[in-house]
Pectinesterase inhibitor domain-containing protein
Amino acid sequence: MASSSNVNNGVSVLFLFAVLLIAASQLAAGTNSFLYGACKTIAGGSELLSVTFCIDALSSDNRSSNISSYKEFAVIAVDLLTANATSTKSEIDGKLRNGSGDAAATLCL
């Protein structure tokens, strides 16, 4: 037969575990709830943009953790798009300078 103190210790540990689990899930939900809602609204039923891609892209910028409006997300999105376009242009310029060895690809670039 289990002693009363062992049962109480077991219950206390389970209670503490449950509280920590609930607190952690609420913290995670609170941190990403606005971001998730914004991405769900933006992506909607789009076949080109998924909610997961939107969340991954916007959360790659540290500023997204303190965002509370769509306008602030738009600023981050424009900054990410600008950085991506600049990087792509540099890559294309490099391929054109060095020659890709493929005339059709060079023509397209």
Confidence is low (pLDDT under 50) at residues 1-11, 13-31.
